[in-house]
Design brief:
The chain is α/β, with parallel strands linked by helices. The chain has a single domain, classed as Glycerol-3-phosphate (1)-acyltransferase, CATH 3.40.1130. It has eight helices and seven strands; from the N terminus they run ααββαβαβαβαβαβα. The protein has a seven-stranded mixed beta sheet, sandwiched between helices. Helix 4 links the parallel strand 3 and strand 4. It is globular, with a radius of gyration of 17 Å. The mean pLDDT is about 90.
């Protein structure tokens, strides 16, 4: 029965992805920025509901300009954060070429970066700083890779330079997934090692109902810290938010 339910949910996921693709292609050009942001939030909440994930928000998202810095567990993190509050993500460039998904992430306002390229990192930092100066809300995963949902990996500092350059605050965010019934930490959504998007999605669809928690911390300013010092402090803050 669990497999049959997962298959039914999978078919609904595909239908919802196609609906989002059609929306981005047809109606987004007619929307202003605010309307696009609200549409992304509604679509993300709908997708999570189909998968069987409830979102619980603690704290309050800061208004722009702000750079949000969250721990990274799964491909679901972007959906969860969009469902809580729309923001523009900095994502790896490979996603842009993924069928359907690339159109959706681009429609959600993502900025793309060539991982491992110092020159491209500098380009993206300048682009991020410009967006922050315009009052936008951006989001990054400073760990650079997905973790296990229990341990927060060290934060890379490069992209945090954008907030320093724009004199913008950073808001630390803790993401966690729980079994909705037992409240125990769930590893089902984790996306690590040899996982593929399909295998991770299937494992999540087969899992019992899940609870995704987004916990917003207090905003911070650099206050004389360089980006490496700030990265260490932000990582420590996210660790505390996860407790």
């Amino acid at each position: 029965m669990r497999s049959l339910r997962a298959i039914a949910k999978f078919l609904r996921v595909i239908a919802w992805v196609l609906r989002g693709y059609w929306m981005v292609r047809t109606t987004f050009p007619k929307f202003n920025d605010e309307q696009q942001a609200r549409a992304v939030e509604v679509w993300a909440r709908g997708m999570l509901a189909i998968i069987g994930i409830e979102v619980r928000v603690k704290g309050h998202p800061a208004p722009g300009p702000v750079l949000m810095a969250a721990n990274h567990i799964s491909w679901l993190d972007i959906l969860v954060m969009h469902a809580a509050c729309h923001c523009r993500f900095v994502a790896k460039s490979e996603i842009r070429s993924w069928p359907l998904v690339g159109v959706l992430t681009t429609g959600g306002g993502s900025l793309y970066i060539e991982r491992g390229s110092r020159n491209d990192a500098m380009r993206v930092v300048h682009q991020m700083a410009d967006a922050l100066c315009q009052g936008q809300v951006l989001a990054v995963f400073p760990e650079g890779v997905t973790g296990d949902g229990i341990t927060v990996l060290p934060f890379h500092a490069n992209l945090l330079q954008a907030a320093i350059s724009a004199e913008s605050p950073i808001q630390p965010i803790a993401l966690q997934f729980f079994d909705a019934q037992t409240q125990a930490v769930s590893l089902a959504p984790c996306y690590r090692d040899d996982d593929t998007l399909v295998s991770s999605l299937w494992r999540t669809l087969c899992a019992p109902p899940l609870l995704a928690q987004v916990r917003y911390g207090d905003t911070q300013r650099a206050d004389g810290r360089n980006r490496r010092e700030w990265a260490l402090d932000l990582q420590a803050t996210v660790v505390q938010l996860c407790k």
